[in-house]
Structure formats: C-alpha cells, structure tokens
C-alpha cells in the first residue's frame, strides 16, 4: 500500500530523515518505533505532505511525493497528531461531523460508543474540560469517521492511563478490521503486541524492519541500537 524510498528531509539546516526506506502492506498495523528525537513524527508529517522532502513516496502504486496535503487526504491518508486539537466553544459532535464521511448523528453515536465514550460527550465542548484520555479517544473517533485507507497515529498511547491504553489498543485493532492500514508511531514497546510488522527508527535512519516477533527481540534489547 505505502512504500517510502530513500526519504531525506532537512529542516533549518539539520538533516532529520536520512534515506528512510520501508513499506506498509494493505490492511496491516505497522509500528514505527524509536526514542524521542529519532524522526518518527517528522516521517509521518513528510508522508502526509506537511514538509517537502527528497526521495519517493508511493501510495497504492502512485507517486505522491509532490502532491499537497489535501490531495493526499482525498486519496485516503490521514494523520492524527500526538496532541489532539482543542477548539474552545466547539461541541464534540460538530468537531467530529467536520471529518465524518457519513454525516449522521447515528454514525457519530456508533463511533463514540466504539471508542468507549458516553453519548453525552458529543454535546460537550472540545476544550480543557476533557481529560487527555478523552481527547485521544475523540481524535481516534475522528479518524474512524473519516474511513481512511491509511491512518497514521502519532503516539496515541502517550500520557494516558492503563484503561485508556487498553481501549485505544482495541480501537486500533478494530481499525484494521474495518479495512484501514495503520502506521502507529510510538516509543513504547508494549504497543508492539498489536502490530503485524514494525520498523525501528534511530537518528533519522531505519536500523531494522520486519515481522513483529523479529523486531520485538531487538526493541526489548535496545529501542535505538545506534545509541549506546
């Protein structure tokens, strides 16, 4: 589904991505693992088209390297940021309706239940009154409502309690069941158990990529083998 070839990205004179190569297959959960500062988020942003880069990004057989963010979104690619958006004064239902492919309250209620939130949260404001775990789940609901072909999730497991962690893990597996491929960005080795395959990124380079059990051994030993 997605193939990244020799991806290089320089920002403010610093090379962030250094010839990254990896692939995500159709209908798989693919973890991108690495310590903070390894280039994981920048990689997702480059795939989304937020930053220009050298190399090639192939999606469903088409070179999308020079396409805009909007064009990539129309093709079925989406990115959920690590810190969910906060829109003071905007109700959750209105926030979700913007991204929903099927714009109906019944669909919103179905998805909000799927992510483990009560129906009445739809009528609350997207703001400071929501916990970090609730905002993360609302962001996942937004992604589910888009019905994307490829969902890139930037550390959905960070800053949440164990209950939210388990629920979010289940939602990600359900995404796969609904036909969405997932690129899951994390520095947490616990998330590898829900993955099909994984790639370890270190200092902007891919140091390993393969099946879950193969990568699991390496990641448990050292999350960034190039750093000693």
Automatic annotation (TrEMBL):
GO function terms (MF aspect): ATP binding; ATP hydrolysis activity; branched-chain amino acid transmembrane transporter activity
Any single GO BP term: L-amino acid transport
Pfam families (alphabetical): ABC_tran (PF00005)
Keywords: Amino-acid transport, ATP-binding, Nucleotide-binding, Transport
SUPFAM superfamilies, per the entry: P-loop containing nucleoside triphosphate hydrolases (SSF52540)
Parts of the chain that traverse the membrane: none
Cited InterPro entries: AAA+_ATPase, ABC_transporter-like_ATP-bd, ABC_transporter-like_CS, BCAA_Transport_ATP-bd_LivF, P-loop_NTPase
Family the entry assigns: Belongs to the ABC transporter superfamily.
PANTHER family per the UniProt record, alphabetical: HIGH-AFFINITY BRANCHED-CHAIN AMINO ACID TRANSPORT ATP-BINDING PROTEIN LIVF
Stated name of the protein: ABC transporter related protein
Origin species: Aciduliprofundum boonei (strain DSM 19572 / T469)
């Amino acid at each position: 589904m997605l193939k990244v070839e020799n991806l290089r990205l320089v920002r403010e004179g610093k090379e962030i991505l250094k010839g990254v190569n990896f692939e995500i297959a159709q209908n798989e959960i693919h973890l991108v693992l690495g310590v903070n500062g390894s280039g994981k988020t920048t990689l997702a942003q480059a795939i989304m088209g937020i930053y220009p880069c050298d190399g090639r990004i192939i999606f469903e057989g088409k070179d999308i390297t020079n396409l805009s963010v909007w064009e990539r979104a129309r093709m079925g690619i989406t990115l959920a940021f690590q810190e969910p958006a906060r829109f003071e004064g905007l109700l959750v239902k209105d926030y979700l309706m913007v991204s929903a492919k099927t714009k109906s309250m019944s669909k919103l209620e179905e998805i909000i239940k799927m992510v483990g939130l009560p129906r009445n949260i739809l009528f609350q404001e997207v703001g400071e009154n929501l916990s970090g775990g609730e905002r993360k789940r609302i962001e996942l609901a937004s992604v589910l409502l888009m019905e994307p072909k490829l969902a890139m999730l930037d550390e959905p497991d960070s800053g949440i309690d164990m209950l939210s962690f388990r629920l979010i893990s289940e939602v990600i597996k359900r995404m796969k069941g609904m036909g969405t491929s997932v690129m899951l960005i994390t520095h947490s080795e616990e998330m590898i158990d829900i993955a099909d395959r994984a790639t370890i990124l270190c200092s902007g380079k891919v140091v390993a990529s393969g099946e879950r059990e193969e990568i699991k051994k390496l990641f448990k030993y050292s999350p960034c083998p190039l750093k000693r």
